[in-house]
Amino acid sequence: xxxxNFVVRSNCEVDKLILKKSDTSSEVQVLGVEYSNxxxxxxxxxxxxxxxxxxxIGTPAILERSGIGNERILKPLNIPLALNLEGVGSNxxxxxxxxxxxxxxxxxxxLEDLTRDPEYAAEQKSIHEQSGGGLFSxxxxxxxxxxxxxxxxxxxxxxxxxxxxxxxxxxxxxxFEAVVNRIKNGVALEFSLVxxxxxxxxxxxxxxxxLTANVILQYPLSRGSSHIKSQDPGEPPLIDPNYxxxxxxxxxxxxxxxxxxxxxxxxxxxxxxxxxxxxxxxxQTQEQWEESIRKRASTSYHPIGTCSMLPQSESGVVDxxxxxYGTQNLRVVDASILPVQLTSHPAMTVYAIAEKAAxxxxxx
Length: 364
Hints:
The protein has helices spanning 55-65, 71-74, 112-116, 118-131, 154-161, 173-185, 247-264, 267-270, 286-296, 347-363, and strands at residues 12-21, 28-37, 40-45, 50-52, 68-69, 83-84, 96-104, 141-147, 187-194, 210-217, 225-227, 238-240, 273-278, 298-299, 330-332.
């Protein structure tokens, strides 16, 4: 792309923003950006705006190293406070999920066979190249989204909703109301089926083919944080996801686990399944399901919320124009601005945020 106003600098890592108190107001102005390029310290000065798009982990880290964040986090690190925004790095939310792994009866081929049988892999590759068929044409996952009402009985629904009677202190009443409304009336869980073994921290049988069913929490009530540990940009931040801190999250995932077991007991699957390896038939009661979930829940790598678009009085970091509160020329354009989770994988929404931001900037 040959445009005089567009320059890409690769192999660079941003250290911090160069800030100055405005001469005409109480706001902070961004004068430039300090970064390293393969170990060389560099600086670029700003004529108009700075747009932060470092993601839900990177964006709050850069803000904090620049002196924008919670004073209680920055003071122990000897970072001069430029702007006290308590919400920076807080409200961390992620889609978490658990697996149910099923061993298949002999004679059924899955993706495992492509990695452990070179002749079979070559045969399937040839079929795919010639006709577009074979195992290489199989989708890795089949997805389905389900409402809470379709998963539980009225009695179970009443039991679960008891856990939603009180707003937790770390959420604003508006946030809590929005999340609970989506849980009750929207899509509560995502299910996917993967034609291979998909348990990252557990062993599989070497010569066995597997199906793995996953259940993914769409609207977690738990909240965590991501904060820097030092002024050093090379040191990763401390991420405390606080998964399953709210009891409803574990309760709902347990309902999803039970639904997977019902689905896999249908004739279409029963004829090919040998047994359930994880969590295993010993898991039966609600308490056993929740215990298993707390041991095995994993991330979908969909973090959001660490620079949320909320009122500043509710620990918000950006306003509806994506500007960081208290700044003149600093915006955030990434998933960190989302105050609550999505009923989807977030990539398309992040693209839409970028499109909206571009429109805002062009129209100002």
